[in-house]
């Protein structure tokens, strides 16, 4: 019975992922200026990600909530925080990628490669690559979280152990915390071509 339910949930997750990819593809190429970036990114400075995704911190949580039921509930709350962390940063990466894509397309459309120079071109390319890599990795993590949320509806983790939040930090070879830091650094490098004031403003937001 549980196997059938899991298969149905996996099929539903796959359909949702397919639809999400289509919507993501449609939104990725929206033109975005730096001024719009300021308006659309989500502030993330209030989220202590290092602690949330720490294996040692998770061990402390397990030791504190020794009763299995209490630990399951705490892990569910922590997974909700992890989901919020990833969603906010994935959104920001999308906005940065849209901005970098706009810079790239405008430069090529107006034949400004020579005027832009290699430093600006490199900054655009690096921002595009960092944002795209992070969004792919974060999508994998969000799929895992969605799967565990559906499992909890059916099984309430009575058979399966609660998921490790610390393990959500890495998608393949990509460390999400380091990956977002790379998005931030490359975005700030690109913003520096607009002046120190705008660079500092973007830094305060992302």
Would you write up a description of this structure?
The chain has 206 residues and is mainly α. It has one domain. It has eight helices and two strands. The chain has helices at 2-28, 34-40, 49-52, 55-64, 68-109, 113-155, 176-191, 196-205, and strands at 170-171, 174-175. A two-stranded antiparallel ribbon has the order 1-2. A hairpin with a 2-residue loop joins strand 1 (170-171) and strand 2. The protein is elongated.
SSE layout and pairing:
Layout: H1 2-28, H2 34-40, H3 49-52, H4 55-64, H5 68-109, H6 113-155, E1 170-171, E2 174-175, H7 176-191, H8 196-205
Antiparallel strand pairs: 1-2
Low-confidence stretches: none
**What sequence of helices (H) and strands (E) makes up the elements?**
HHHHHHEEHH
- Gyration radius from CA atoms, angstroms: 20 Å
Tell me the major beta sheet. Answer: 2 strands, antiparallel
Structural class: mainly alpha
Oligomeric form of this entry?
single chain
Summed up, the domain count is 1
Q: If strands are numbered along the chain, what order do they take across the biggest sheet?
A: 1-2
What sort of overall outline do the alpha carbons produce when their principal axes are compared?
elongated
- Beta-strand percentage range: under 5%
In round numbers, the mean pLDDT is: 85
Number of helices: 8
Number of strands: 2
Q: Measure the end-to-end span.
A: 45 Å
Instruction: Indicate the percent of residues in helices.
Output: over 70%
Quick synopsis:
With 206 residues, the chain is mainly alpha-helical.
